[in-house]
UniProtKB/TrEMBL annotation:
Subcellular location: Cell membrane
Similarity comment text for this entry: Belongs to the MIP/aquaporin (TC 1.A.8) family.
UniProt site (Involved in tetramerization or stability of the tetramer): 19
MF terms (GO), sorted A to Z: water channel activity
Pfam families: MIP
HAMAP family reported in the protein's UniProt record: Aquaporin_Z (MF_01146)
Protein name in UniProt: Aquaporin Z
UniProt KW keywords: Cell inner membrane, Cell membrane, Membrane, Repeat, Transmembrane, Transmembrane helix, Transport
Source organism of this protein record: Pseudoluteimonas lycopersici
Record-linked InterPro entries: Aquaporin-like, Aquaporin_transptr, Aquaporin_Z, MIP, MIP_CS
Site location (Selectivity filter): 46, 180, 189, 195
Gene3D superfamilies referenced in this protein's UniProt entry, alphabetically: Glycerol uptake facilitator protein
Length: 244
């Protein structure tokens, strides 16, 4: 139960910190205000939540905080099938609680309202009219698959027993920052079905109608990434230089 609680809290922190920065701080003061953190700040916020969460909870649960990561590690032979559903349930519940708390905080500002038709409303993900850059569904799906796959490759490489000890959260956090820098204009960056769900439930039917894409594409990408790293073979005992 402590492992599932760690996943719940870690995903809660990820969504509250990452999506919270987008909702509360990205455009603080209006367009052009130097106090707003913008795209770069939101990207860093997501990376920092993973970095800090991994150091806080990684030794308890492995710090997945993301159903796509759980599926990717499962496909790569690093995670047991029996824990997939409990981890995903914990992650989604943590994300929903974060979305609820973020909604309560944001509602404390005068005039706060969510435009259900706006791109990226309440830090939601989307394509077409709901994409920050107007990208279509095909581009959104491809982007989410590729970004998630590479995220899993970085995670598996950074957490390999031969990688420098203690630095994995830094590499993983920076990878997530880079992913957001690339893909916020395309989908507002999901690569995490729980993160997408946690805010979509509070943003109206438009976000919910497209939510399936941000479950399917990241999970497919996660599985691809896990299989790629497994194929590369650093966990096999017959790899040259492996001393197991």
């Amino acid at each position: 139960m402590k492992r599932f609680a760690a996943e719940f809290l870690g995903t809660f922190w990820l969504v509250l910190g990452g999506c919270g920065s987008a909702v509360l701080a990205a455009n603080f003061g209006g367009d052009g205000n130097p106090l707003g953190i913008g795209l770069l700040g939101v990207s860093l916020a997501f990376g920092l939540t993973v970095l800090t969460g991994a150091y806080a909870f990684g030794h308890i649960s492995g710090a997945h905080f993301n159903p796509a990561v759980s599926f990717g590690l499962w496909a790569g032979g690093r995670f047991p099938t029996r824990d997939l559903v409990p981890y995903i349930v914990a992650q989604v519940l943590g994300a929903i609680l974060a979305g609820f708390i973020l909604f309560q905080i944001a509602s404390g500002a005068p005039g706060f309202a969510i435009d259900p038709n706006a791109a990226g409303a309440f830090a939601t993900n989307g394509f077409g009219a709901r994409s920050p850059g107007g990208y279509g569904m095909a581009a959104a799906v491809l982007c989410e698959i590729v970004m998630t796959a590479m995220f899993i490759v970085v995670i598996m490489g950074a957490t390999h027993r031969k990688a420098p000890a203690g630095f994995a959260p830094i590499a993983i956090g920076l990878a997530l920052t880079l992913i957001h820098l690339i893909s916020i204009p395309v989908t507002n960056t999901s690569v995490n079905p729980a993160r997408s769900t946690g805010v979509a439930l509070f943003a109206g039917s438009g976000a919910i109608s497209q939510l399936w894409v941000f479950w399917v594409a990241p999970i497919v990408g996660g599985i691809i990434g896990g299989l790629i790293y497994k194929w590369l073979g650093p966990d096999r005992p017959d790899v040259v230089g492996d001393q197991r």
